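Hi V.,

You were right to ask for the full record rather than a summary. Here it is.
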Amino acid sequence: WWSDPVAGTLSGEVTLSTRAHPPLRLAVATEIGGVPLVASTVDVVDGSALVTLRPRGLRAGHLREDLQWSPQNPVLIDAQLELHGAGGVVDRAASYLGARSVSAEGGAFRLNGVPYFVRAVLEQGYWPTSLMTAPSPAAHRDEVELIIRLGFNTARVHQKIEDPRFLYWADRLGLMIWGETAAAYDFSSRAATLAMSEWTAAVLRDRSHPSIVAWVPVNESWGVPDVSRSAQQVQLVQALASLTRALDPTRPVISNDGWEHVDSDIFTIHDYSPDPEVLSRRYGSHEGVCATLDSSGPQGHVLSLSDDLAERVLRRLMPVMVSEFGGISFTGDGTTWGYATVATPEAYRDLLAALFGALTSGGTGGGSVIAGFCFTQLTDTGQEANGLLYGDRTPKLPFEDLRAIITGRTVGEDDFVWPPVTKQSPPSRDSGGLRPGDHPE
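Predicted structure:
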């Protein structure tokens, strides 16, 4: 499923799992909270069908906001599909979709056409008792709720293809996701082949989730360690970025998150400086960002391998994000690790507040030239003791303190409401029966 709010369309690509005897027709009916929205019937040709729906409310600018998915309004549209053959209904299926658009242009990340500051956290999705598998199905929802309640609007799922049940709750509860995959240990023909095939499967499986707003096929040159001097490795990174856009042209692609960008739509930088003044100097002004881009890179890696990308940053055409920062710990005991270690919870609180404050203004990004950030990380993971929470999800500081630091708001003045409030006005005839703000439970 994908949507184009400007064109006022919802589109779906349906492929049959087995051959069926023609003639076949696919009927698709959509609704929100039990209220019908729009329906259509199309022919099935060669085992697949492309359906385009045009709900009236999505075409009308004054009604579009109520139909569009966002963290503040995670409205989902239910879809019922029926396959009709000569003898009647052959098969039935149910699905859902979210109407929203994402883009990276004019120096900003845009959600539904509007600049939207990305306040993300690195989520490795590890659990002390079960490693990469959540301890229960309910843990997926709990994790999404936890991230949202902390004040983040985005999770960068790191070095794993996330469980669809986690993505389901991100769709339903309103958490934006950066989709990533695990890296190869080193570069080889076999690794390149597997990267292309496995990444293809991941994008095709997950591209219908409205919560996913960006794709990250490569991180920190892992699997392509010599990309800065190997044309062969550059070609693989370029190929992965181009393949991603071919499979899904609706989302920004970060070709190599952190440094050594080849062909990205968002220019992302990893910077683990523990000095807030350094972060402010590097990202508090456009001149600072340009100077950082022209340097050897905060982590000792050149940031761009493309003159075109650098020029787009210089001309404020491409959004810049600090997609990893922080990584501090106060639990250093010789067996754990963080990018920086402080001695007490008080020092930890002060440094957290200063680092977040250096990259944002009032929790909205309104005073910052960057388009967003991603803090490392949500929880302690293995030997990495640099989470906001311990591995068992216990917070290292009082929850309200963490939320105030992350959002840049003092306790008591936070205007974020959890869970999202849905409007209870009657269905609108102009919106095709939609109850504005509603979404199915």
